[in-house]
Amino acid sequence: MATLGPRIKELRQEAKLNKAALARRVGVSDVTISYWESGAIRQIGHERLVALAQALNCPLSRLLEEPSTKITPLYLRSNLPLPWQQGQHKGIDLPIEMIPNQYWDGDCQLVTPAPGECFDFLEEGDLVAIAPSDLFRQPGLYLIKDDDTLTVRRVEQSTTGELTLQSEICDHAMAWTPDCHLVGKLVAIWRVHPL
């Protein structure tokens, strides 16, 4: 909790409270608030942390969690390499409430179609959470590597266990070929709608 002190100060300033006002709400002295913010007092009891979060009108998790780094969507292109294979990229962890009817755990990568790129089922400006994986777990949209080309296809499993592909414009299933490989499951899409 080395960054707790600066976070308390930042949240206090966001709440437009001076140290004395925050101290009254939490039930401590303003000197204690100064010690917390400077890091002179590093350990704060659970009851005080709860009171502090309530006084700052923020969730306790925001008070305690490490500050997150800004996540920038990666550009999805129709050619390799995969967007998350180009350097160090931090994945996002989606709360289960945000992805109903999806049975997926683990990190996802936030991507958006690159300018000038067209993908079935995606529009320009869409934000997409893709879970990198070569496993089929449930029917849905997947990122497919076919030779050296990336496409988005609806993938389903037939009663005989074979995977089938479907494009957005074609209403019949296409056969899975030896050159096709799953590289990611699209677990969420956010589309911008004009106001």
From TrEMBL:
SMART domains with a match to the protein in the record: HTH_XRE
Keywords: DNA-binding
Any one Gene Ontology cellular component term annotated for this protein: cytosol
SUPFAM superfamilies (alphabetical): lambda repressor-like DNA-binding domains
Domain of life: Bacteria
GO molecular function annotations of the record: DNA binding; DNA-binding transcription factor activity
Protein name: Helix-turn-helix protein
